[in-house]
């Protein structure tokens, strides 16, 4: 387990950029934490650490954003409105799992716990203050 204390968004992004160096194709990052906890900020840092050229934004309305052109591709999901296996199939979630050279970052993983039976890295965000966050990363021996 790895635990990071971040005092502001820039520290969250920097921590995620450093973590991105440890990621491998096929990694699934399951984010847990409330609204405004820093999930999209963390994903911006991951994208930077993967040398992705695009600007990361929340996939709230699109459900998934894809970023390519870096060391690995990144698919960023928002599962806030997803509540069933059928809805996951409908957005093509399972197809993304088999994409080569891709990492998945999944916001609101609480809502799809029924589908997280695959190996994954749990990233839990806890607000400590208006800008402070505890980020706990649990997965395999890289963390």
What does this protein look like?
The protein contains 4 helices and 7 strands. It is globular, with a radius of gyration of 14 Å. The longest helix is centred in the first third of the chain and has 12 residues. A hairpin with a 5-residue loop joins strand 6 and strand 7. 36% of the residues are buried. The chain is an alpha/beta fold and 143 residues long. The chain has a 7-stranded mixed sheet with strand order 1-7-6-2-5-4-3, covered by helices on one side.
Topology (elements, then pairings):
Elements: E1 2-6, H1 9-20, E2 28-32, H2 39-49, E3 64-67, E4 73-78, H3 85-90, H4 93-96, E5 102-107, E6 121-127, E7 133-138
Parallel strand pairs: 2-5, 2-6, 4-5
Antiparallel strand pairs: 1-7, 3-4, 6-7
Short description:
This protein is of the alpha/beta class and 143 residues long. The protein is built from four helices and seven strands, in the order E-H-E-H-E-E-H-H-E-E-E. A hairpin with a 5-residue loop joins strand 3 and strand 4 (73-78).
- Beta-strand content estimate: 25-35%
Given as residue ranges, the uncertain stretches (5+ residues, pLDDT < 50) are none
Structural class: alpha/beta
Which strand order does the major sheet show?
1-7-6-2-5-4-3
Mean pLDDT comes to 92
Annotation field: number of helices: 4
Q: Rounded to an integer, what's the Rg over CA atoms?
A: 14 Å
């Amino acid at each position: 387990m790895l635990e990071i204390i971040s005092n502001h968004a820039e520290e969250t992004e920097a921590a995620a950029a450093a973590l991105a160096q440890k990621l491998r194709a096929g990694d699934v990052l399951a984010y847990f934490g409330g609204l405004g906890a820093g999930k999209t900020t963390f994903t911006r840092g991951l994208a930077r650490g993967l040398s992705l050229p695009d600007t990361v934004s929340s996939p709230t309305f699109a459900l998934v954003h894809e970023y390519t052109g870096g060391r690995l591709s990144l698919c960023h999901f928002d599962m806030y409105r997803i509540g069933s296996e059928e809805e996951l199939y409908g957005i093509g979630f399972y197809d993304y799992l088999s994409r080569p050279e891709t990492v998945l970052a999944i916001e609101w993983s609480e809502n799809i716990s029924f589908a997280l039976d695959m190996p994954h890295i749990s990233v839990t965000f806890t607000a400590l203050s208006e800008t402070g966050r505890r980020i706990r990363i649990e997965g395999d021996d890289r963390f």
